[in-house]
User: Fold these one by one.
Assistant:
Number 1:
Amino acid sequence: MPDTVSALGAPTERREGPDKVAGAARYAAEHSPEGCAYAWPVPATVARGEVTAVDDEAALALPGVVAVLSHLNAPSLAEPDDATLAVLQDARVPHRGWYVALVVADTLEAAREGAAAVRISYAEEPHDVTLRADHPDAYVPEDTDGTSGEHVRGDAEKAFDAAPVRVDADYRVPPLHNHPMEPHAATARWHDGHLTVHDSSQGATTVRDVLAGLFELPKDRITVVSEHVGGGFGSKGTPRPHVVLAAMAARVTGRPVKLSLPRRQLPAVVGHRSATLHRVRLAAEADGTLTSVIHEVTAYTSRLKEFMETAAAATRVMYPSAHGRTTHRVVPLDVPSPSWMRAPGEAPGMYALESAMDELAAAAGIDPVELRLRNDTDKEPDSSLPFSSRHLAECLREGARRFGWAERDPRPRARREGPVLVGSGVASATYPANASPSRAAAHAYPDGSFVVQVNATDIGTGARTVLAQVAADALGVPVERVRTEIGSSDLPAAPLAGGSMGTASWGWAVHEACSRLAERLAGQEGQPLPPEGVGATADTAGTADADSDYARHAFGAHFAEVGVDTVTGEVRVRRLLGVYAAGHILNSRTARSQFIGGMTMGLGMALTESSTMDAAFGDFVESDLAAYHVPAHADVPVIEAHWVDEDDAHLNPMGSKGVGEIGIVGTAAAIGNAVHHATGVRLRELPLTPDRVLTALDDGS
């Protein structure tokens, strides 16, 4: 029998790695069919109003310009469910940066020059882009998915007022932007009534279905390919305007059209994390046992469609209390539509909750790790469902051991190295462990090789490799004999890569298909396979999406050590350590990469990443990587990720939980708590920039 014991969990190298290093991996904008034209969009320069005139004469006179599309001549689309895709359909301007025209040309340079030559006239209207907790238009959204709206248990206000230990604090997280290394791009081509699109997307099946609806085509007349994707972080989770514009331009011109969005335009058109305002009130007995938890969140949405950053959802999961209230309020503004960004809801929400827990530990005189251990639970507080597995305590204890927490002097400002104050902090983390229905096919060939097909998307997570490991484990063969085919809507339909449930969803279907294939092969033992081989399929609808009697979540603990320069205000993270309980780890190499990537992104959230909405112009000030600062390797010298391998029978056949997002969830809070320990002053607004740190030090001295 072949050795397949290590198929799942082994640090198998990513299969596409050599192609990426060699430049052989083709991304959406690297496909150039014969006769390919190039497109460049024209964004609106007002925050609200209507287009009154489009002067494209100068643009059309430029050499190489083929066409200028606007609401006056663009093809009509069917009304989409997502209003952000109704591009060039009418004269309205719902926010600055909304696309009002598209220039198509023979070359990229001509398209860009043509876009600059288009003159748009507007009837401008008053706008409002300012989020405030007391905004008169704020409302509680309908709780359609169990995460938005308001959840109440007991009498949280009365219990808070009666408690001997209390914390009442406001926290603020600014708008944050998805800036994947590969900008949003698509290459579209119509041929004999069939639309083929290479799109930078986290889910080709979804893109195909949406395009079919917009262009009123049968789904089998559209092929969407997303074979390699250079990051997404949620911004490529559903179709964005670029793919619609590329398909539209290709239809009008009769030529293949390539559109790669300029990075400066991304903040306005591909989604972002809404700013969130938090008020957290925690009440506890003298021993730190929580009696009341109140978390109120106010965020904004656009006037195009409602999106709520459900930042209080994680609070409903973390710590038990007899009384609790979590509320989401949303304010419609004249801003670009917010959408998913890595760990939507959990990332900003756990920053606020875990910062408040640190403040509660100080108020009660209890070690921050010990406070969290005292408030551990085996049931989800809001639903009372038992957790399928919850090893938060093990993560906290193991993290404290590895970090050397016991040697920490609990007193703030106790450790100084010249002008630098040194401190350490801790925070817990959680993220849901879900799955969606998926289809998959598996095929065995006479030469002993196997092919697995599923329309999964590899956004840099190693999906090709991990799915091969899942297949090899189910088939009982070495992983080298399994080939995976992913990234095309012509393959068996699959959900998008998002919500930390891609591998759980696709892997479930792959496991079922391969298990059925293994049974079929066992029945043919001793008989040669036919030349075309044999296959099996699976569809997990009705099982992967079935209700569970358990609350299923991953958990983790983050530890950070920082140095705060009292002269410059700089915060330098010296060490980051995360310990996670995320089910059975399917590939130790790719999992560690995902954990570390999330932690690094959390470092950016804590220290460098921030966007400012200009109230006068209705525009994001930080719109490119020169102004919007993402962290680099040098920003954290030491970063470690470890895990507690769980045996959870209530998840999926692999026993896995998602690992792509939990790494970001607690990192910002751990860093913020470390800054408080170092300095003795509490900063409650991210990011912790030098100006804010110096102001806090001056006020606290």
Number 2:
Amino acid sequence: MTRAGSGRPGQDTAALHRWILSFVAVVVAVLTVCPSAATAQPSGSGSGAAPTGPKFLKLSLDSVTPTAITASSDPYFVVSGTITNIGDRPVDDVSVRIQRAAAVTNPSGLRSTLRLDQNSFDVTGEFQDVADRLDTGQRKQFSLTVALRSAPELPSGISSIDITAPGIYPLLLNVNGAPSYGGQARLDDARFLLPVLGVPIATPDPMKRTVTPTVPAVPDAPPVATTMLWPLADRPRLVAGATGSVQGSAMLTDDDLASSLASGGRLDQLLSALETALKPDGGQDRKLTSALCLAVDPDLLLTVSDMTDGYRVLASPSDPDGTTRAGTGAHAAKAWLDRLRTLAPTMCVVALPFAQVDPTALAAAGDETLSDRALNAPADLVDSLLSVKSVRGVALPDSGTLDTDGAGLLAHHGYTTAVLADNAVAPSDGRSNISSAKSPGGASESVNPDMVHLSGIDLPTPGGDAAGGPEMHAATFDIWSATALAAIGSHPPTPPFTPDRVRYDVTNDSRAARLQDALGAVAWTALNPEAGRPRSAVLMPPQQWGANRDEATAVLGQLDLLFRNNLAAPRSFTELLAQQPDPQPYDLDYLPAAADEAVPDHFAEPVRQQAHNITELMGALVDQPQQELTPRTFLTPLRDDLIRVLTMSDRRAGAAAADTTAQRRLDQTTRTIDDLFHSVTVLPPGGVYTLASEQSPLLLVARNDLPVAIRIKFRIDAPTETNIKDIGEQQLPAKGTRSFQIPTEVSDSRNLVIPIALTTPDGTPLGNAVSVSVRSNAYGRVLAIITASAGALLLLLAGRRLWHRFRGQSDPADEGFDPEKRRRVNKYLRARKRKLRDENQEAR
């Protein structure tokens, strides 16, 4: 007999119900809060690139040592990472293992394989325990020692990924754990590429260093002729609307550039990595130096040069008229510029477009002088500031692509070559380009050499004809290595030439993983010869590259490693440009993503108008020997501001913010140009201007508040009653005034209103027009008749008196005339005459 029948059945039933309800509540909570745990699969049998549902663990790759395997390397490598509990509950039994997929056989696989299903990483190692338990917010670092090839007696805790041939291998780190209220499941993974340039012989003990080299990585294939551009650029920093001056400090929107130039900053680290790799005792020979070309933004050089003399910084970048403070980077700017001036003469140097200007937007603006400053001046600026002779005639558009208008503009300004993405050109016969064409076996169909002839571009000739001029070529770079290089560093962009099918947010991967992907992409061409494709590569990082010193050094080290293993050979940038292009004509293929990121069309017209105004004012200014400031020095900064309006810088970070910055810069420049035109004006005379006679000159005063002398003309809208002579072109001194006498004839004694204004010699208005009220003492024809009649009467009377006097007769008019009375009359007449004379003088 059970106790259930002992007289308390109601209590037992209630307890049973409460137990059942509690059990159901726990099950529902587990299913609701942790659905992935309820459906968790066994370790390693996950279904995709990343588990879905609540996130419990975050796996981050920290390092791979060594970053690339060679035939002389140890047969082991070490992978380090960090696991962080980012969930809302503890996770038990945390373990990781390494997995491998097949080597990348297609260049697009350098990116697409990193998003493969986990089942594609079918070569698996053993799980290694990391932590018994990770509480919320807790993290744990780990290291895995991995053998490349299997061996009969691998030490405990070492997994093998069975690599027996060189290649670029996708690897995956898989972390498993059991969240509270759930079972064991795959909770996160991290993917990266491992470049294997050669496979060493495995040894059973990782502590042993005896290694037997294997056969060469790529037998019967010549080394890849490799050229790499090393960019140094930054977004525009100078505050818009400032004219040039002999004295005065520069004004920057912020002081971020000071941090970038100082020790540990982005630009400092890029330059430091280059200095270390190329210094004579750095261990490398001249191969690395000859393969590199320094690509420098002249706008960056101008800004850094201005900073060396001291500068000011806006307290608020959005308020150009607000308060300022002293900049802190003068010393860092000078030190960085001196280092660059020491390094640049030892290597190839090429100028980037000024302020990374968009050639398409520049062509739409359609101003010759603005285009000349943006395209022809950069090489001269780089040469003068770095004391070098840079490579000429080659354009490096930031987007890696051009439309026909942009290419035509470059050709018009003397450019013969543009460095473009290999999918930004396509054969004119309609064949697919290299980035999209695939052979049946999955490899790229090689239809693009790395130097092609462009067709369909209006090329200038000395005679002005549309045909027969110099040819326009394109040197193409590999988009897959360029995409991977762009992903290095902080805030990595996705370039516009990256195909849509492989676009994803690379910031989900750690910096170490992205670096490994780039090293693999750099080495892929060397390890994978393609039939019919030249053994060559152009490596092109983004112009505002975010790599730090260690990452940049790793890229240079990978390049040097390829040279030392005879997988690549250095090719100078000038050798690349001197190559004969493919005789097959190619058309430009302006990429849609580049068009989406381009400078909007609505900036073209206002930029064109303000550029025209600068040209008009420049033509009126006078370059005088005694004048410190030249017209070009005075106005060129405003042209530079208009070029910066059309910059591609920061447009991949968000179009709205870039448009706001561009509009603010345009508004500031426009306001300054308007102020310059209003700084030259005619001064209005006070009250009514009275002419003493009908031919008295009109006296005017003009003022020039500009620090440069200027040529002017008077524009006077004379009424029909006046005849005002044009005195032609005149000159006003810098910061001074000058009086002018304008010959004037007035045939009316009424008050006349005469509008007067100043213009440039070409007729562009200056200052504000004034209206002069003129009153003349002239009476016109009536006065002439009266004067003539009075004169005739006077002659008649005088003649009569003389006639009577000669005949000895008294004048009848004197009869009965008292001499005393006559004397008084004469006295009165003399006094009256004096009074009239004084009044006339006072009127004048």
Number 3:
Amino acid sequence: MSTSQPAPVSFEHLPDGLGIGTATPRLTWKLPPGTGSQQAYEVRLERSGREHSTGRIEGSDQLLVPWPGEPLASRESVTVRVRVWTAGAAAPSAWSEPSVVEAGLLDPADWSAIPVGGGWAEDPAAERQPARVRKDFDLDRPITRARLYVTAHGLYEVEINGLRVGSEILAPGWTVYPHRLRYRTHDVTAHLATGTNVIGAWLGDGWYRGKYGFDGGTRNIYGTDQALIAQLEVTYDDGTTVVIATDATWTAATGPIASSGLYEGEHFDARLDDPYWATRTPEQYTEWTPVRLGNRNPRTLVAPQGPPVRCTQEMAPVAITRTADGRHLLDFGQNLVGRLRLTADGPVGTTITVRHAEVLQDGELATQPLREAYSTDTLILSGRGPYTWEPRFTLHGFRYAEISGWPGELTQESVTARVYHTDMRRTGWFECSDPLINRLHDNVVWSMRGNFVDIPTDCPQRDERLGWTGDLQVFAPTASFLYDCAGMLDSWLTDVALEQLPDGTIPWYVPVIPGKPMWTPIQPGAAWGDVATLTPWTLYRRFGDLQILRRNYAMAKAWVDLVERLAGPDRLWDTGFQLGDWLDPAAPPDDPAAGCTDRYLVATGYFAYSARHLSLAAAELGMEQDAERYAALAAEVAAAFRRRYVLPVGRMTSDSPTAYALGIAFDLLTEPQRRAAGDRLAELVLADEARIATGFVGTPVICDALTDTGHLDVAYRLLTQTECPSWLYPVTQGATTIWERWDSLRPDGTLNPGGMTSFNHYALGAVADWLHRVVGGMAESMPGYRQLVFQPRPGGGITWARTRHETPYGAAGSSWETTADGRMRIHVVVPDGCSGVVRLPGCPPVHVEPGEHELDSWELLEKSA
């Protein structure tokens, strides 16, 4: 790309434009480096040999700009370029490099494929062996284009002529299948040749019919069938098209996968593996039988809104220990989510068993935290020489693996850990002078990676792995800084809205699966249900996408209206089942909701906060009456909160850090009450020697509450505490991810006995948002970071910090240091098209335009004197 041209256009929140699911995709581009600001732009579309130009359009819009031409038709491909006029330039920029957007199948009538799977009888209550399906077909002329549109009931991996199609795993991911089944578009032109071709697919149970959920899990949550839905469309060089779709002409057979489950692991018999199964002609496959046909309403087939799950990193073991009985214990040095790829050679029938765990206890795998997720993979060797294998349809959370039955010497080259998560683009970085805090931040990143696996999960290792709404709600600000997760979370919020009950209740987790007796039937709960109002707002602020607010507004309004009815005229939500400040460290291991803070105080506080954010969303969407109504409701709830939960002496009825932090952070208090609450909060923190005393609700806001009431030093005391419970205690214990409990591993070295003791859970890592904004000193002051605030507030002995974020407009950064003579120097980067303000302690604010700027606190003070 030339420095005089904009970056190539991108579409919606997708990494590329192939198979897009909207006829009018929005366009985003970044300005040529160093050009400052845009005054006008022009978009050129090339479609079907014709060219269309918008002509010069005045304005600075460059983020999610409306589609400027006729809507796309299904399968239509359009090349898009943009050029811009920037401030001070006499001529327009060069045209951007071309970007291609191609529509998927936009009309249900475009689909002719029907689900096909194994035609044999199965016991739906038992573990079933997965099927493979295949079809051979002839192409009698040279081809110019081929597209595969594919999804499944269950999971799939497709091969054409023996070559894997795509690199994603656990496709099609997990959505609310009755309403939305995601399909993906692949360009498979290079896979095909004139003559005989074969398409085949491995199938797995996955979330669709595999055993999933609590207390032994539930099978067949969405159906008993396992089926491929595939439509291969091939265009010949004369322009004619042939369609090879799943139908009654396909055949099926079992393969070398004996069993596979997301929790259980995978069992593979290499003796039954034929690498040519998807390349040979049917007469060589007499054991293949007709498929069973299924049903799927094509109206439920939807294109992706974000990237798929892929391998993003490979890691070798850092240590291999052989036990006295011949097992091998592998340490990968990092708690990760993925699978092992093995290369082994041994006699026929040799059985290699791999077990996984996050931590060790007395030198052995600690499997108690896994509950009933057995996380065991088995490979049976064929005896035909070295064999490389990796499971297909399972995923494990682990740092340690135990391998039994390995033939010969096990070396680092024999085993690789492959890390998997939704393949989001990394956008945020932070580091500072304190190595423990740097490790804490790394742990947050790793926990996000391990739990953003198609949906935002609560843990990746045990028999749960669900999309808990409250966990994501508190972590969304951190997530949206670290990664471009807009498309993934937009898709998940679509499912949250689909799962919302008619009365407005938001489920505890989405997609919804059975969870008796605690989680089924679904009840409305504060903090978890508030994902409906708070997370769309967070995504709007961070990614600048007003449509996310618009699409989720009805869901948010229904939620707030429900809570208003539950609270009644006194505006206090003080009835019903609530989780309160979940996993408050004072709560007993077997009752995580029994914290120090009145759960109805939490509920009423969130009621006010959600009503206020609904009002803000309404204002952004131009709904003035709603904005006024919900602003007034928020004020009424805040007044009720003060009457019920704030005592005349200034204390709160729950004299706990979470109560004061919520009152401050949610702006529920009068100014005198706010000052008193800040002082009492600081007093409580210091009285406990700055050990943390908050759970999922209080933890994300406590440092901001202290900072905003003049107790920055106490916030840093909390941050830098290393005794249990604290953020840094797990770091001192060697943690490489965020723990679910502050004491998942107790100071005496024993595991927390609670049933929920995950060592990879991002919720308590929500403090990273404070690290980015306060320690690093960079935050957005307009949606999409169009305006930034650089306001580092040093403390805790930290002498420097660097924060960088790839905003929708380009790279922004803040790098500061303090010197022995008391100076503070800062280097800031403002993206083209944006502006900012720098606020150094004790100095007047300085407005900055696009580019790089160096500022010195002493020089600023001298200029202002």
